[in-house]
Amino acid sequence: MASAPVIGVFFEGHVCARVTGVAKQCSLQAALLCTQRERCQRGQLRVFWTPPLLAEYGLRAMEQGLQRLYAALLAGAVDAAHPTFDTVVVVVPLCGYQPALEPDLTHILAHRGRLPSTVNNVRSDAGLGGLEPLWLEVSHRAVSTTRSTTSIRAREWTVSTETRLEPVVDGLATSLQPQPGTEWCFPETVEHVCYGGTFDHLHNGHRILLTIAAVLATKRTVCGLSDGPLLKNKRFAEALQPLKVRKAAAQRFLNLVRRGVHHEVDAIVEPCGPSIVDPGLQLIALSQETQSGGATINEKRRAKGMAPLSMFVIGHVAAPQDAAVGEPKAASPKLSSTQIRQWITQGTVQQW
Fold this sequence. Notes:
By secondary structure, the chain is of the alpha/beta class. It is 32% helix and 20% strand. It contains nine helices and twelve strands.
């Protein structure tokens, strides 16, 4: 059986409104391709993003960029009727590897230009097979006085109007980015970072938390994966992924967003896990829901004579407001594993 498509696309710069529009189109096209080629809708889109100079950009600005990119990618997946489509945003200067040389990539998504051939030349020099180019269906804007607009397939580059048009492809990289370096870091960076959660059906909130935790660590991350009694009150538990599946998904994701750091992912059966027994830990990454748990952990660490942990709290990630995937209530502004399990239980989306 042929492997599921793994599609790469390269972005650079600030994540503005036009960039998120292009990201949404990328996700839509990639999700449709994977749906057409794989009956079970498997496949993945990897967005390799090079932000502005990270030393000046700042960790919070990077988090906001990730939030916007992931929200746009989710919107595109929803438009493709595949809201659980697997997307990963890799921050290139921090990932620890050259994205173009990833052996499991199968396609590259781009607009007109020489990037696909440049990537394939680099891969050929490394003894890797070439990537099949996919041309982004971009919207166009008029640059003359007329107000007419049109959309065309970038592969063809023909238009049915005399107005001169230029492609709206803000944010898409036109050249291969330099080899990621190790000199990138933030003032918040420490050697050892911990975090925890169920990480069931990885969604955008999980992905951002895992990414931030990974880039904050220079040596080790420690993930406590909820299991046993910590799962007893989960809603739609029949769609809960087994521990083995959740652990493998977290490890795969961490290996994509940050290499050169040791990632420990182990089950925990009580809320605090290794955070109150490992004196080497220095920082804990938290969601807004678990922020209060950080204070409890530090109280227990102090009681044991250990230094308290610094805390970094991630913001909410919006859920798609679309009736086709079960329109969430206004009181639920974020995407959650519970919502995904509900979709699976109701047959709205497929579990795989």
